[in-house]
UniProtKB/TrEMBL annotation:
This is ATPase AAA. GO terms for cellular component: cytosol. One of its GO terms (biological process) is phenylacetate catabolic process. Gene3D superfamilies: 1.20.1260.10. GO terms for molecular function: phenylacetyl-CoA 1,2-epoxidase activity. The lineage of its organism: Bacteria, Pseudomonadati, Bacteroidota, Chitinophagia, Chitinophagales.
Amino acid sequence: MSVQELEKIFQDKIDNEIRIEPKDWMPEKYRQNLIRQISQHAHSEIVGMLPEGNWISRAPSLKRKLILIAKVQDEAGHGLYLYSAAETLGISRDEMTEQLLSGKAKYSSIFNYPTLTWADMGAIGWLVDGAAIMNQVPLCRTSYGPYSRAMIRVCKEESFHQRQGFETLLVLSRGNEEQRAMVQDAIDRWWWPSLMMFGPHDSESQHSEQSMKWKIKRFSNDELRQRFVDMIAEQVKLLGMTLPDPDLKWNEEHKHYDFGTINWEEFWNVVSGNGPCNKQRLEARNKAWSEGAWVREAAVAHAEKRAARKKQVAA
Ligand code: FAQ
């Protein structure tokens, strides 16, 4: 079969909502684009454990500590499903890890901001997981089978995360003056970086057009960002707080909230490695990797020993 014929079969499957599976023929650019997106997504989950991990030892009660540990563990699980999904496209886990540790790979800009107070745990759950879900629910229908199936479980867990984040802020917002101020301060610091999670404007997004044709992406960066603004602009009222945007205003004609201009210079600065915590995050991952070397070596030695014993028994 010619490449044109193979491409036609491939695109027909996508147009007819048939998932592409690992052993199916696919264009090389589709494979590379998926490896790029899925591995960046996996790295985001893994690096995303760090800002929250920072508060496990300082959670205000045993109950809050248990919830936070469970959430951080969930993020590790998401990273693992996603690395496995990417491996089905022919890249090894070691290669992806090397790309992250060397600073070559991208991960979400949001995780390069510091977590300064306990209210940040609530703001991350509500805003960061909230933005993550808005972007990831459509990925449950993404055209690549292993990615779409991984996203179903991820989204269930993320929606629990978002609710626990909102509840954390709700409790604080019903507390004393100092606690309310802490909530407002956390919202003020996390709001704009959360909007940046959706990526550049559609006109600046290099991958969107092709990714939409391949149904890797179902909605554009700006469409999802707008939905997120519309959702949060209502929810923030329940907290009795405000969003730090003087231009946020309901637009009756278009039935959505208009909002102010994102600081794209800040966004690209963070994406290119110069955000407040980029260096710290990579150092933490590299430290964990080298300190975990003995565990990996022990696991390999154990597996080899077991395999040798099995061989002996069989003989
Ligand atoms: N940060 O052409 P586009 C989470 C890059 S998971 C850094 O629009 P695309 C869970 C982009 O990679 C959060 N880089 O790209 C959690 C590209 O660079 P490249 C992560 C960004 O792929 C919660 C360039 O800019 N979620 O939060 C960002 O079509 C709480 C041009 O951009 C996912 O990864 C950014 N924000 O659209 C964990 C979801 N935005 O590769 C712990 C899957 C863009 O050419 C605690 N990913 N870039 O060098 C996606 O949906 C897409 O990849 C987008 C970007 C929408 C992120």
